[in-house]
Amino acid sequence: MRGAAVVVGVGESTYYKRGGATESEFQLACTAIRRAVADAGLTMADVDGFTSYMDRNEPVRLSAALGVGDLNFTAQTFGGGGNGAAAAVTLADAAISAGYAETIVVFRALAQGQFHRYGQAGRPRRTRGAGAFTAPYGMLSAAQTCAMQTMRYMHEHGVTQDSLAEIVLTCFEHAQRNPRAIRYGTPLTREEYHASRWIAEPFHLYDCCPENDGAAAIVVTTAERARDCAKAPVSIVAGAHGLEHRGGVAAFSYPGFPTAYHRHVGEQLWARAGVGPQDVQVAQFYENFTGPVLMAIAEMGFCEPGELNDFVADGNIRWPNGRLPINTAGGNLGEGYIHGFGNVVEAVRQVRGESTCQVENVELSLSVSGPGYAPGSAVLFGRG
Amino acid sequence: MSVLPEDWALPAPTAITEAWFTSRTIAVQTCAECGSRQHPPEELCHRCGAMSFTYPALSPNGTLHSYTVAHYAVNRALAPHVPYAVVLVSLDDAPELRVIGNMPGVPIEDIRIGMPVVAIWEEHHADDASVVHLPQWQPR
Questions:
Q1: Domain boundaries defined on chain B
Q2: Domains, chain A, ordered by start
Q3: Residues A34, A210, A152, A148: what is their CA dihedral angle, to the nearest 10 degrees?
């Protein structure tokens, strides 16, 4: 389906532990956007659109503060959580391919040290809607929600705690090569993983994404405009953002439970791209928690659920020798939790040859967003 | 007996959830037109679009489908109550429908996937003097 849009710039702010940022969240957003535009060899006056997901830094304010040109397109995805990261790229691709805008910045800024912490919950008094069926029982956080899915998934498919650990250890190992990573210089052992406290069984502390402060952005434009840009363009081969029939039923009563919400996304993505998982050299899987990463690997078609233990063992998902290196910048767990947008930036870097864990001869680079929350999304990048 | 604070969050029953939270039965929303069942209740039938429903009582028997044990208190008020288990129960009369609950008085280490369970109801008095009956689960 390859559309008209390509990626020409990437940028991020410094990534901080929660509360560590000296800048405001809005300033972090602006820094990431300015760096991405500069990386593209463009100016702010060239930007005419913004897309994001769950972001409170509105393009109306951003465009004024950044001095962008005339604004032609803005959009955010529906649906909660980091599942919108790849979808926000497809929004930009759709808008540019349809001619509504020429140069769109896709971004996400999130400073949990300045706003609500994702790992905590308010105290609801009386609950309505779907929350009435979960909150009264103390089922309140994303960790608990994904734990409920993962516990069943492990039971059905024999997935082991050590396979959960493998996701964490892979991310931390890759982060040791990335100076931008919050966990740079602080590796983790398997023993430390298993000894860490429980958050919500089967998740230990290290199965859970950290709460961080930072922002990341990419610049998307037309192939024609990309000829003026500083670096070789990265194509958006295909994107998918959706949900299978009745997948949106609340409170764990959807027919496909347990699911990462990526079965339909995978089918759509590979059909649109005209390739399959076997054609991908490197992938970024959004880690809210380790369990949904494993589920997403299977649902995107890389292996059967019963093969997951072997798929992730023995360095198979680690750089440089794994058959599918994942989360090569350290991912949400090791590089920093910018609501998953770092995984989009890293997928682009792999095509450019700019990763700190660079896979050789990358033709196709996948980024899968927000498993465990509906609707899922994924985007496939390739050489321009 | 409740595993959470006595004054923890309660549902505010609405037209479509009142039967579930007040009847002391497994009152599953059933379409008055086509007979389709759905849970949690929704404002229209997913199959035919009708907006009128009945709430017949299904068997209180179920099978434990999944669970988690919360060790981290996501709200300060829960800190004295962790660890606590939250269970997901598949209804024996409608296995495709699943219900969240706790297992008051049951040791966490006794909870396992596949165990047969039966619903009980906890009576809660809200600030506005209304009464809510929360379904909970016990081994059977």
A1: 18-139
A2: 5-115+209-383 (3.40.47.10)
A3: -100
